[in-house]
Amino acid sequence: xxxxxxxxxxxxxxxxxxxxxxxxxxxxxxxxxxxxxxxxxxxxxxxxxxxxxxxxxxxxxxxxxxxxxxxxxxxxxxxxxxxxxxxxxxxxxxxxxxxxxxxxxxxxxxxxxxxxxxxxxxxxxxxxxxxxxxxxxxxxxxxxxxxxxxxxxxxxxxxxxxxxxxxxxxxxxxxxxxxxxxxxxxxxxxxxxxxxxxxxxxxxxxxxxxxxxxxxxxxxxxxxxxxxxxxx
Length: 232
Prior knowledge:
This protein has 232 residues and is of the alpha+beta class. It has 5 helices and 12 strands. The strands form 2 sheets. The protein has a 6-stranded mixed sheet, with no helix packed on it. A 6-stranded mixed sheet has the order 5-6-7-8-10-9, covered by helices on one side. Strand 5 and strand 6 form a beta hairpin. 48% of the residues are buried. It holds the Pfam family Exo_endo_phos. It comes from Sphingobium cyanobacteriorum. Residues 7-222 form the Endonuclease/exonuclease/phosphatase domain. InterPro entries: Endo/exonu/phosph_ase_sf, Endo/exonuclease/phosphatase, GPI-anchor_lipid_remodeler.
C-alpha cells in the first residue's frame, strides 16, 4: 500500500521562542518530522524584499528538501509567507498561487507532487485573524481545490481558528475530513489547535500528531503537525 506523510509548520520567520533567528533549528525539526511534503507558514521575512527565512544555500546543503518554485517573488521562498517543501526526489507536476480575499496581504499555495508512485495535490495556507475574512478565504480555497482533475487532496496550514468547530472549520468540514493532530500553539505550552490538516475521501488517515521535541519547542512559537495517509 502506498503511503505519504505530510506536515504543516508555522516557522515564524525562523525566530524561535528565545527570540533568536536560527533557520538551522527549523531544518533540524523538519528532519525529525521526516515528512514527504511540508506546508510552511511565515516562510519569508515580513518587510523589504521578503527574503526567504531559510537561506536557499542552507536549505540545499543541510536538508533533504527543496521548495516548490512558485516563480512569483524573486528572493522569497513562498507566496505571502506560504511555501511548500518537497523531498528532493519528488517531482512537482504543477503549482500555483491563490489570491485570497483580505484586508492585509494573504495568499495560499498549491502543488501537485508525484512521489512513491502516486500524485497528491497539496494546498498550504495561513488564514486571517478576522473570523469574517477567514471564512471568505476558506471559501476561496475550497473553490480552488474543486477545480481541475480529481486527485487525492490535502489542505493544511495555520487556520488561526480558536473555536472547536465553528467558523471556517465548519466550512472546511463540509468538504474535507480533519486529521486530529492535536494542540500546536504555543510551542512552550500548547493550548490551541491553530494548525490543521484536512484531506479528501481518496486518502485514508493512518496516523497523525503534533511533533513535540525539544528542538521544536525552541525553533518557533508553533509546533509542527503531521499526518500519514494511505492512497487508494
